[in-house]
UniProtKB/TrEMBL annotation:
One MF annotation (Gene Ontology) recorded for this entry: zinc ion binding
Residues annotated as domain Peptidase M1 membrane alanine aminopeptidase: 227-440
Named cofactor requirement(s): Zn(2+)
Catalytic activity: Release of an N-terminal amino acid, Xaa-|-Yaa- from a peptide, amide or arylamide. Xaa is preferably Ala, but may be most amino acids including Pro (slow action). When a terminal hydrophobic residue is followed by a prolyl residue, the two may be released as an intact Xaa-Pro dipeptide
GO terms (BP aspect): proteolysis
Domain Aminopeptidase N-like N-terminal, residue spans: 104-187
Domain named Peptidase M1 alanyl aminopeptidase C-terminal: residues: 554-875
PANTHER family the UniProt entry points to: PUROMYCIN-SENSITIVE AMINOPEPTIDASE
Similarity annotation: Belongs to the peptidase M1 family.
Keyword Protease annotated: yes
Function as written in the Swiss-Prot or TrEMBL entry: Aminopeptidase N is involved in the degradation of intracellular peptides generated by protein breakdown during normal growth as well as in response to nutrient starvation.
Protein's recorded name: Aminopeptidase N
Amino acid sequence: PQTINLADYAPPSFLIDTVDVDVDFRRGEALVTVQLSVRRNPAVKTSNDPLVLDGEDLELISLRLDGVHMAPDSYHLDAGHLTLADLPDAFSLETVTRIHPDGNTRLSGLYLSANGYFTQCEAQGFRRITWFLDRPDVMSRYTVTLHADKAAFPQLLANGNPVASGDEEGGRHWAKWQDPFPKPCYLFAMVAAKLDVLRDNYRTTSGREVQLAIFVEPGKLDQCAHAMSALKKSMHWDEQTFGLECDLDHYMIVAVGDFNMGAMENKGLNIFNTKYVLARQDVATDVDYENIDRVVAHEYFHNWTGNRVTCRDWFQLSLKEGLTVFRDQEFGADVHHRSVARIREVRGLRAAQFPEDSGPMAHPVRPASYIEINNFYTATVYQKGAEVVRMIQTLIGKPAFRRGMDLYFARHDGQAVTCDNFVVAMADASGADFSQFMRWYEQTGTPHVAATGRYDAASQRYILRLSQSCAATPGQADKQLYHIPVAIGLVGPDGQDLPLRLAGDDSGTPASQIVLSLCTETQEFIFEDVPVAPVPSLLRDFSAPIVLEYAYSDADLAHLMAHDSDPFNRWEAGQRLANRLIIAATATLSTGGTPIWPASFAQAAARVLADADTDPAFAAEALSLPSEATLAEQLDVVDPDALHAARNGLRRFLTEHLGAEFLACYERLAPRGGYRPDLIDVGHRTLRNVCLSYLCEADSPSTRALARQQFDTADNMTDQFASLMVLAQSEGEERQQALDAFYQQWQGEALVVDKWLQVQATSRRPSVLNEVKRLVEHPAFDLRNPNKVYSLLRAFGSNHVHFHAADGSGYRFLAEQTRQLDAVNPQVASRVARCFDRWRKFDASRQAHARAALEMLRNHAGMSRDLFEIVDRQLG
Ligand code: HT7
Ligand code: ZN
């Protein structure tokens, strides 16, 4: 397969001003007639380039140039392209193409799902619908007409505004839509389906009336209210926060059960995975509700960051994704719980992005090359990209960041631009120099910053020394120095922040927190007038996506846990303590020893529980240990059994010491009637369920009875699912009873069945692989449905101890499933294959098993480009 390089970017030789699409749905096929008005790009000097249109799995029926039929010998067709030479400077081109959406299991382009036809064009799905210049820097105005059977497909939707509709012979109908905004083809969408609709409207600050609609499968209207309220909240937030109004008359969301990712921001016609639309208290958890808020907001925010200003090429993907994730994070923080939201973002970054940055798929936030762009919708482009945007805001402050956003839109509205354009707008609006900062877009790997601190009582100075380094990653042996914002405070013995005055800086009143810029390899920062030896609170609010090393004593960490004014670092101190204990215990267990857990850790956890009432959601995070995937990154050679035993050992230790406290908290937080997904009740439920999970570490008849009681009486999915999760780990008969009851109750709700699969795939029980193998054969599982695949197969791949089983059984199983999946849906197959990324971190015997499984995959005939790129990198 061919590698595409950023360095080879060249502007398109032709532009397409208007696109008139006519789609006739008939007997499982679609006849797609497209009129293009094409002209040579005046910015490109060569005058006789051929026009090379992209096309994939298309059957060309006819071609007309300026109305004149073209014979097959006057153009060139090969796999993937239609080439026309000797063209005038401007012309119209009509293509008639037949496509087969009913057989499209890749879910890219036009495809059939339950209730009708849907599209997914990002990144390169439009070429699976018709011949086109399928690249984001070609922006066109679209008119779309759809024709279909009226009874089977009553809704005919496309981007923009409905302009006309009518009936046709034979019980058919048609509808015409026009999108006033020029857009790249990846934002094209259409739907022909039988769906129910929830309608509402929103009036923008300047008085525009926007008609809102959410389309869902028949019978699901009672699960749409939360998504609609999320949409209105997002619209209001973007007006308040960034002064950005909706530019549309119609904003539609269509939910579909078969979808490769979460959702898609098509202009005015978002298409969503049902997972991020449907919610009702009995079928969706608090986390689902929050995710819906975030994803609805994310897609809505793309209307400005992605659609109005789009990407010049796919290497710039983080221009829209990193920025939009940052915006949805800030929205989530404003409407939910700021510090808990930040903690969860960092947990996610450490569990997914840090391993990616150290593994075979390591790539910069702006990748320099790819084989298949779909493989680069990654934690690095999204989450690290958001951290890069956040660092810009941290360095220049919120007011300057807002000015930078304004300038970015003023300069680039309607354009397809690069990450440089964004950063230049920020630099120009703030006066800051971001030249060194740009390395965050170019280099792979997670930087480490080693910190040491020294207090000099005589001079009342505190000297902080920071040194940065970044390990070599594939293809980038030598790293250039980063510009790293390090937010810090100094915490005094009384727990108060000390006023900070940097030597040489006499401006203004000393602050309790400042942002240091670490730009050289080693830098010393001297703080004056420090009256007592402080404990440094470093990297507050996780001000940079790095690993910060400082030799905190256990007492320092206990002090920060109890007093740090930065909630993130209060949480972080507890994680550091837990981390230290689990890593040490893993080594002890690996060599046949028995870990000894310090009572001080139980005391620190007891203090968190005692103070939990002030902020239960925070307490829940503080009591939750780092994940095995996160912990594994710190080990040179991972012994997954020892790591698993160590982490669970620490959980059991807490249960043994704090059983009474967990039970008291559990009982104190018993629901007081009426489910509400609000801040207070969510916090209570979260903490209560953390207590339940600790109590059930004992796996005794009484704890199982407690869980079963919650399972039977819960009036909401959060509590029901939390109890199912703990029962699914247990060894008693309650386990199978609860799993069966859950399936009986919810087999008609696809998204709840996904939870049922997931809870079994992630179980710690030794027989999990056999259970997953049985579930693959279960009628509830379907290899063609990405949600099912992610819930069972990818979830098993994230089951650290069992996927990495010593006998290689987990590897063999997942490789074989991936091979079968590749023939159905390569995008999803390559996402599942990512579970193998860290295989080299394990012992030689496990590595041999993993290598054999990967080689089997690489050698299979007809492997997709998607999967090839992943496996080839993994095998190196
Ligand atoms: N921009 C959307 C990306 C997306 C996507 C990419 C590849 C294949 C399928 C896809 N579905 C959606 C999602 C987003 O970031 O908003
Ligand atoms: Zn996005």
